[in-house]
Amino acid sequence: MATGVKRLLVVEDDMVDARFVIRAFTDIGTGLEIIHVTDADNATISLSDGQFDYVLLDINIPGTDGMELLRQIRNNEKTAVLPVIMLTSSMNPRDVYRSYASGANAYAIKPSSISGYREFAEGFSRFWLDVAVHPHTTRPH
To answer: Is 3.40.50.2300 the CATH classification of the domain at 9-131?
Structure first.
């Protein structure tokens, strides 16, 4: 098992949604350190400056969209295997397909309430924190 606090990068331009995500993870007590950025440029800087364990990524962000940022994450040796979960309002099957084809680990629709965000955070925690084996713990040396 890995030690230390896990870090989650939230890439979300909607401040209400960002607050809901942060509040939900805080309310359920995951212990995640959450860093929030509003666009791809700041996400790229954050990813190059620090070590993250997970990314929650919205598709519709200003400038470089989430789909292109996902491709950039996958094409960077440092972040190529970083778990990226798309959290977006788009229910378009094309966006779902393109996300997975570009390397997303999961695709979820943004909840419409704080209780929905808590349910998302609980599901995320149960799978990504409690069950999934993280690529950083299995990296070949």
So the answer is: yes
**CB-based contacts of 2: which residues, under 8 Å, 6+ apart?**
134, 136, 137
Buried b (16+ CB within 10 A) or exposed e, 49-87: eeebbbbbbbbebeeeebbebbeebeeeeebebbbbbbb
Placement of tokens 């229910």 in the chain: 91
Q: Which spans in the chain are helix H?
A: 15-27, 40-49, 66-74, 93-101, 114-124
Q: What are the residue ranges spanned by the domains of the chain? A: 9-131
Task: Encode the chain (141 residues) as per-residue pLDDT tens digits.
Answer: 345 789 999 999 999 999 999 999 999 998 999 999 999 999 999 999 989 999 999 999 999 999 999 999 999 999 999 999 999 999 999 999 999 999 999 999 999 999 999 999 999 999 999 999 888 755 555
Which of 119, 101, 128 is closest to 109 using CA atoms? 119
Contact 103, 135 (CB under 8 A): no
Of 44, 108, 107, the closest CA to residue 79 belongs to: 44
